[in-house]
Amino acid sequence: MPKPPHPPTPTLLLAAVLLLAGTAAHAAKDPRKDTFLQPSAGVKLAAYHGAVVVLEPTAIDADKDKPAANDEVRTLSDQLLLSALQESGLFSALVSVVPADLPAEVPALRATTHLSLEHGSQALRALVGFGAGKSRLYIQVDFADAHTGQPVAHFNGYGVGGGYMTLWGGDVASLAAEDLEDNYGELTELFQEQIEGE
Amino acid sequence: MRAQRIVFALLCLVAVDRLAAQVPPAPAPAAKALPASGSPRVVGWTGLVFDIKKGRVRIAEVQKNSPAARAGLREKQFIVSIGGRAVTGELDAYTALFGYTGTPVEIVVDRDGVQRTVTVVRDAWRPQDE
Fold it and tell me: Which of residues 28-87 of B touch A (CB under 8 A)?
């Protein structure tokens, strides 16, 4: 005679619900994991269509004992943001410094990028997978008026690397490259949408 | 005799008056030319897109109907210098390209070890969808 399935105890059900609710609430409350572009109060991004963009080198907060990987991610960030802005066609010029003879009537933006990188564990990603040892990348790009220094817009992006099984766990730079490319593509799309919506 | 002089003087006055009526009015003074530093300047566009290949800046794309295309620049040429300045990275190259509409920039490119100098005159930038 087959044994009837044992119903889960109310305590177990309650624990599961609390765990799920807690996880969801925690995720919802972490604004660093959102992806958005927020113009500053009273600023119209359309005024910066065709602007000259001054790109500052990316700054990064990450494990100090992995400087080579950090440098690689920083360089990738610089290159991928440059490519995304170039390909977007939204801006007239990309430069490393404000041109000395830039007239005040030419709109200009200064883009400052800050990354926070949690390396996670490549060994766990390789051996366990399914989210174990995953890396996390928090991206912030601040746009300010290059003439006045006034804030223009803030972009927030997020990426997680190695959420599933990856070959050899994936090195952190490769994982970050995907996240950076996705996020910077999103940034330019949001910028475009914002301009069209104003 | 005195009457003749008076008549002659009057005739002269009439003649001068008629001549003056035929002369077109003097043009209004020309608007004062803006000094070079105050003239409106438009950021220039060359149509070049760069990437990095073997550690060197390379032309990844020459946009259609762009000043760079008209000047004869082609993809896969390596950049040696822009405006007399050696460039080491993509942003460095874009920065060296910066200039205003109508101004020329000399670009030295290298293809298969052969260098040549090309002059590109910048056009006005316009949004890609126009």
Answer: 40-41, 43-45, 49, 52
Separation of CA B99 from chain center: 10
Residue B48 has pLDDT above 60, yes or no: yes
Model's pTM, two decimal places?
Answer: 0.76
For chain A, positions 18-77, list CB contacts with chain B under 8 A.
49-50, 52, 55
The structural domains of chain B, with segments of one domain joined by +, span 44-124
Top residue of B49, B91, B123 to mutate, by most chain A CBs within 10 Å, is B91
Report the distance separating Cα A30 and Cα B90, nearest Å. 35
B129 vs A: CB within 8 A: yes
List the Cα angle B8/B13/B16 in 5-degree steps: 125
Given a cut of 50, whether residue A72 has pLDDT beyond it is: yes
Q: Which of A141, A151, A150, A148 is nearest to A185 (CA)?
A: A141
Number of domains into which chain A is organized: 1
Most confident of A20-34, A83-97, A128-142, A164-178: A83-97
Q: At A162, which CATH number?
A: 3.30.160
Q: What Rg do the C-alpha atoms of chain B give, in angstroms?
A: 30
> Considering only CA atoms, which of B53, B67, B58 is closest in space to residue B99?
B67
> What kind and span of H or E run contains A93?
strand A93-95
Q: Which fold has domain B44-124?
A: Pdz3 Domain (2.30.42)
ipTM of the complex: 0.77
Q: Give the range of the structural domain holding residue A183, as residue numbers without chain letter.
A: 36-197
CB contact under 8 A, A86 and B49: yes
